[in-house]
Design brief:
Number of helices: 6
Shape: globular
Order of helices and strands: HEEEEHEHEHEHEH
Largest sheet: 6 strands, parallel
Strand content: 15-25%
Helix content: 40-55%
Radius of gyration: 16 Å
């Protein structure tokens, strides 16, 4: 039964994302807002996290190509020393994205929180989710059930030897997503955290 749940959950999520995941800036359709899902800036002290770098580079490329009109960076903040949205916003600015185009949600501790809050707190409906190739399927699966009309852009993949742990963790995170949405019914709880500084809007892409 456990094996069936694991295999079934992964198959369901992968299948549900078919036809909605892009890796070409030229081919993806324009959407009002891109949601960049958070991860830590560094994997060790002063060692850059390639997942962080690639997600933010992809987000900047989409904005600068007019494929998103603004960006919502959503991640976890547990102290002034660990603040994913702050680091993501700083990276986007360094890549040439203006501050006026960036909104931040520091209550996106999980993908579930990020997707539910994007719709229920920030009022978004028509979005592009930006993350790693192995992550975007689960994000779209949750987005569908959170009231979002979403497509996804997968950033440049991190080499397998540098991402094995993340890929294995994702395999089981997909099972948890199915349980959260269909058995534990947790999405509504994700909106209890207060909204953050700069609410995003469904504005047209440039």
């Amino acid at each position: 039964a456990v094996a069936a749940l694991v295999i079934g959950s992964n198959g369901w999520i992968v299948f549900s994302a078919r036809g909605r995941v892009y890796d070409s800036v030229e081919e993806i359709e324009a959407r009002p807002v891109g949601i960049v899902l958070g991860t830590s800036k560094n994997v060790a002290k002063d060692r850059p996290n390639p997942h962080f770098e690639n997600r933010l580079k992809a987000a900047a490329a989409l904005y600068q190509s007019g494929k998103v009109g603004g960006l919502l960076v959503s991640g976890h903040r547990d102290s002034k020393y660990y603040d994913e949205p702050r680091d993501m916003e700083a990276k986007l600015k360094a890549l040439g994205v203006p501050a006026s185009a960036i909104s931040a949600d520091s209550s996106g501790a999980r993908t579930l929180d990020s997707m539910v809050r994007a719709h229920e707190v920030f009022g978004l409906s028509n979005v592009t989710v930006i993350s790693d190739d192995f992550h975007v399927g689960r994000a779209l699966f949750i987005a569908d059930r959170a009231g979002l009309d979403a497509i996804a852009f997968r950033c440049e993949p991190v080499p397998i030897d540098e991402s094995v742990q993340a890929r294995v963790r994702e395999y089981f995170a997909r099972v948890k997503a199915v349980l959260d949405l269909y058995l534990l019914h947790r999405p509504a709880a994700a909106t209890r955290a207060k909204p953050v500084e700069k609410p995003a809007t469904d504005r047209p892409a440039q």
